[in-house]
Design goal:
Radius of gyration: 24 Å
Distance between the termini: 30 Å
Shape: globular
Helix content: over 70%
Amino acid sequence: MRQEKTSLLRNQGVQSLLASLLCIVLGLLIGYIVLLIINPAGAWEAIRTIVENFLYYPSAAARLRYFGNTLVKTAPLLMCSLSVLFAYKVGLFNIGAAGQYVIGAGASLYCALGLGMPWYVCLLAAIVAGAVLGAISGILKAYRNVNEVISCIMLNWISLYLVNALLTNVKETASPYTYTLSSTNPDAILPSLGLGALFSDNQYVTIAIPLTIVVAICIWVLLAKTKLGYELRATGCNKYAAQYCGMREKRNIILTMAIAGGLAGMGAATLFLSGFEQWQTTQSAVPAMGFNGIAAAFLGGLNPIGAIFSSYFIQHITNGGAYVDKTMYSAQISDLISALIIYLCGFVLFFKVSMTGWLDRREEKRRTKKDQSGAEEGGKA
């Protein structure tokens, strides 16, 4: 029984889960201490409110509706986390998920509001736009060895200002926000297929939620069960060894960044084509969704299935911050706790190595004790 427990703890998936849970607990604990420092009178109520999120509402109908809103925001975050982890598995750091998300939003909204296209064309446009932007970084990396972090950061800002300029053509006259899909082109809204009725007739709950889960499963299959996934991971481990084995490492790098970009672009479409938000054409900061995807990817142990749960958790506590008593704390307190958890995600590998070391020492002590017992029995005989 003890050996089975030890072997279970050595499983990489179990170690990633335990390390992620430890990050969450420590993040919430440190966040609670910060709340105590700011205002001890409402600290417990604030941390409980953040964790509860939609459970804050006494009405079952309201809880379902706001639970649906959390899921709506989880879908794009999941796609951004898949974008980051897919590239990371191939040895690339796609910090450009934010820019690919932006260009996906611009492409989907312009096709919807400016060209009057149906939702499936708008969704495809977002994927293609994100893939093209990602491929640019991939080409620079493959043929000129330009660090993908540098090229992605530059493209993030180029994408933001380009999309702002493009969507100015489809914005409301009296505000910096784009037209609403419901009044301009209802055919561009993602279909619900009855899912909204499950969340107290929440009109924003669409097929985006199950679709992103299916995409996460497909990414897991691609990386873990296919020849292409093996080649991509091999290229990430050592591109020179991959080249020696006959793998086309330049093609793999470009393909990886294109797929990662397409995932982030699709994430933007799942949010903006639901009608949940409008794009603000005067914003001067890249949306945080792409950067939060980095946290969700690492908190999920760089596993596509784990990213589903980590994305929901991060969005859950982010939404929960809106219900904190504003007379005592800022609404951004949930962002602070998210940031603490994100910071602690950097120690996931450290926790896993420490756990493995602890198990090794345990087994070594057990073997030593067993050898000593055997020697004593041999001496008595």
